Amino acid sequence: MENKNPLKKSHFSDFLNPSRIVFDLQAKNKIDALDELLEVLAQQKLISNKKLVLTRLIDRERLESTAIGHGVALPHARLDSGHDIQVVIGRSQEGIDFEAIDNQKVHLIILVVWNPSIPGLFNHLFAGLAKFLRKEKFRQSLFEAQNKEELYQILSEITLLFPQHEEKIINRASLLWKLQEITIALRKTNKEKKKDLQEQANMIRMELDEALVDRFDRLMARYGYAVAEVIDGVCQSCNINLATSMSSALDGSNDIFVCENCGKFLVSKIPEKK
């Protein structure tokens, strides 16, 4: 089968067909739901090692839940599956506990497995999905679909977004912030804990664009940190007020921006751990 470059695609339907939609998930918990969805890919011979993929998905969930709120989850694993990208969808009428940040049960699971040879692929796909999934009316239409075909048609409306400027990198800011925390902790931790931390760091690195990780490493090597919080419109690295447009875009966003003054990655103020 000849691989095509998915980054040139423009619709979600390019990555999906009705045979990869489980309209009525039987699973009652997160792990069983992931297993049930992976079975679809295994049956279609789109993954060769279901156990390995499931392990990667579970490890990723332990790092941070992929539930994005409002009843939707985007579990994903990056590994060489022999294909560019595989997507399988699950819909649960009762809902499944995914440890979502809003504590709501997940009713729609979009599971993605993609090839590590394509940098940033998941980020591009995630950007397109997020644009639509943020819309309450669109989510409601997904939840209210009467059958697999109707659900597929609604999902086919999704168009993909591609980053246009380096200043705004589509990514989950919390992951980059967590990578910084782990990188700093690795300098101080003992040998016993280092292995576990390194595994977590590697998992995050696999999910990020190569260019993003390279910039992160260079900033860490030079300054000791690469990501700065923005509080009340002020970069906490250089204490300079951000442009009003950037400050407004950051507010409530989980995207990553770059400070025009000091060059650090910027994230909205991180909530304190309770």
Describe the protein's architecture and organization.
- The protein is of the alpha/beta class and 274 residues long.
- The protein folds into 2 domains: 150 residues, Mannitol-specific EII, Chain A; 101 residues, Orthogonal Bundle (Helix Hairpins).
- Helices cover 41% and strands 17% of the residues.
- Strands 1, 2, 3, 4, 5 and 6 form a 6-stranded mixed β-sheet that branches.
- It is globular and about 55 Å long.
- The N and C termini lie far apart (50 Å).
Q: Mean pLDDT across all residues, rounded?
A: 82
- From the alpha-carbon coordinates, what is the Rg to the nearest angstrom? 19 Å
Instruction: Please state the second-level CATH architecture of the largest domain.
Output: 3-Layer(aba) Sandwich
N to C succession of SSEs: EHHEEEEEHHHEHHHEEHEE
Q: CATH topology of the largest domain, which one? A: Mannitol-specific EII, Chain A
Structural class: alpha/beta
Give the DSSP E fraction (strand runs of 2 or more residues). 15-25%
Q: What ranges have pLDDT less than 50 throughout 5 or more consecutive residues?
A: 1-9, 162-171
Question: N-to-C terminal Cα separation, in Å?
Answer: 50 Å
Largest sheet: 6 strands, mixed
Estimated helix fraction: 40-55%
Tell me the domain tally: 2
Total number of strands = 11
> What is the CATH homologous superfamily assignment of the largest domain?
Mannitol-specific EII, Chain A
Gross geometry: globular
Counting DSSP H or I runs of 4 or more residues, the number of helices is: 9
> Which class of the largest domain in CATH terms?
Alpha Beta
